[in-house]
Fold this sequence. Notes:
- The chain is an alpha+beta fold.
- Among the domains are: about 1-110, no CATH class; about 235-335, TATA-Binding Protein; about 355-425, no CATH class.
- The protein contains 16 helices and 11 strands.
- It has helices at about 1-30, 30-35, 35-45, 50-55, 60-75, 85-95, 100-110, 180-200, 205-210, 215-225, 250-255, 300-315, 355-370, 380-385, 390-410, 420-425; strands at about 115-120, 125-130, 135-140, 155-160, 165-175, 235-245, 260-265, 270-275, 285-290, 295-300, 320-330.
- Strands 7-8-9-10-6-11 form a 6-stranded antiparallel β-sheet. Strands 3-2-1-4-5 form a 5-stranded antiparallel β-sheet.
- It is globular and about 80 Å long.
- It starts with a helix and ends with a helix.
- The model is unreliable at about 1-10 and about 330-345 (pLDDT under 50).
Amino acid sequence: MTDSVVDISQHKLDQSEKELKTKLVDYSEREEIQSQLGEAFYIWKNDPNFTSENLEEDQIDELTFEKFYDWFLYDFKVFDSEERVIEKFYLDERSDLSGAEKKLIKDWIRSIHSFFEVQEVLDGGIYIIKDIFTGRTFEVVDKASSKQIRRTDIIAARPLKIGTQTYFSGVVSLYPPTFKNLIVEFFDQEFKEYQNLHGVERNKKQYLKDWGYQIGSYIEDVASHPHFLTPEGDEFVLSTANYRVDDYKGCIKSIEKVKSLKEISNEAEELRVFSWEKIGRNQITGTLEVEESKLRLECYSLEMLAKAKEKIEKQCGESITHIEDSTKELDTFLDRSKSESKKLKKLPLGVKNKKELDLELDNHYDKWIDNPLEILGGKSPKEALKSKEGKLKLISMIDELETIYEHAKKLGEPYYDVGKLRKKLKLN
Length: 428
């Protein structure tokens, strides 16, 4: 009898959820709310080059607008008010809401759009996720995208509680595990700034409610422009190194001894997955996958990959053999559960044309050749030229850099003529 009551109660809440969402959307279409839509989109877009004309010219695709509107309903604060759209809806309409709708709306007002790491994928469109900022772990139901999601994927979404179940509201964005550290580093930096402006008593949930939308903008900007810099100042690109495993047992034993590697898979699985953790001076971020016959390193910059390769090759010795290095297009990882991302062929923010970009890159590499680099043993590229070993490392770096820029050129993305860098260093 008890189970029957619970089922009916959940069914009523599921029905109320659909009706409540319809009421909320209808409320948001009132003139006094819609009049703020343009300015709200400008805030959410977080792009200084965006103008209201872009909104009027129907240049916003349906997927982007769906992401924006979810933020607009749940997080946007109405101008001249401390109330978000959903809070104002509740205050104005609560007398007409049913008991079930009131229960739902109170939970939805507290909802947070955040980033989650998939811990486990279960049958029936159910998976366990963990908030990468707060550490909270819970179960969510999402049959629409569950077939596309794998363990260790990073999800950006808004969980909404409906009775005993939790579902996602709006679009679910997916990112590879490699993005986790990049997202966390950006969050840590911005959260400090948020507390400086609003007080140290402000918590992570309040930051995500007020400023969290900026994380998605930052990550997708990085992914759309291969030459944006990582927080470490490196060129951002997904870089991969592939190895043949000649001695699996010896390889695994060696990897397990690396303190900065944390296993995120189960030891009983055929594919063992490890993540680089920041311990002491270790600055590597990325993942390592190993199975019986092959090992794969993946990092989000060329410099990171070089560090990871050096450490693993030294640790594993003759148990592995290097096969090849490669780079990947970043847009193939974004929103793969909802749509195919378009290749963005635009210049970095603040750069008006190709000539200006060339000048900026020339200035960047003029300084770069005199900057000490950890990968060169703390020497600058100019200093590395003085030794045979340093010169060989530098040549290898520049060759890989050229591969990345040639790849960007083929995609129609901004690129740099590495031949000019060779001339600066007299490596012709």
